[in-house]
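FAQ

Q: What does a record look like?
A: Structure on top, sequence underneath. For example:
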């Protein structure tokens, strides 16, 4: 199962998508550099992800450095979590509890993704993990009905 790195914050539903559409509606950007030139990294990160970035390059931010730590050490920190990707729209966090998150759609300019981590815009409690392993839980998420999953994992 694929693991992904998620920013440890839940954005407002459709916040990023709506703002991205608004920011690109009157322009035809040929590259991400053109997008940054028009708005600046600080404004893009604020408008799309509610991030307070004061530098001009993403890899100069504390946020990026914390992302790299998670990527290299495969250990979560205050800014990022490691989760299992269920499909293109959802991921799951399996600690003592099961939380299912909706992934914010990745915005792309010229078919390139420019923010290396993922964001989420909703989170739901789906049960407790203590009696099953990760692989079993993920298989159950994909194949059990919602009612059967709730019963099995005591999400009530």
């Amino acid at each position: 199962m694929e693991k992904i790195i998620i920013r440890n914050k839940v954005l407002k539903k459709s916040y990023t998508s709506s703002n991205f559409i608004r920011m690109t509606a009157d322009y035809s950007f040929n590259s991400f550099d053109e997008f940054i030139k028009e708005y600046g990294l600080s404004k893009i990160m604020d408008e799309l992800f509610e991030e307070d970035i004061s530098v001009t390059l993403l890899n100069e931010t504390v946020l990026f450095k914390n992302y790299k730590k998670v990527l290299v050490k495969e250990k979560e920190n205050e800014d990022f979590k490691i989760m299992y990707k269920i499909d293109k729209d959802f991921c799951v966090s399996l600690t003592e509890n099961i939380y299912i998150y909706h992934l914010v759609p990745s915005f792309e300019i010229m078919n390139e993704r420019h923010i290396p981590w993922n964001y989420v815009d909703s989170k739901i409690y789906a049960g407790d993990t203590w009696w099953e392993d990760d692989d079993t839980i993920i298989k159950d998420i994909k194949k059990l009905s919602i009612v059967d999953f709730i019963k099995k994992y005591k999400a009530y």
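Q: Is there anything notable about this one?
A: Residues 3-153 form one domain.
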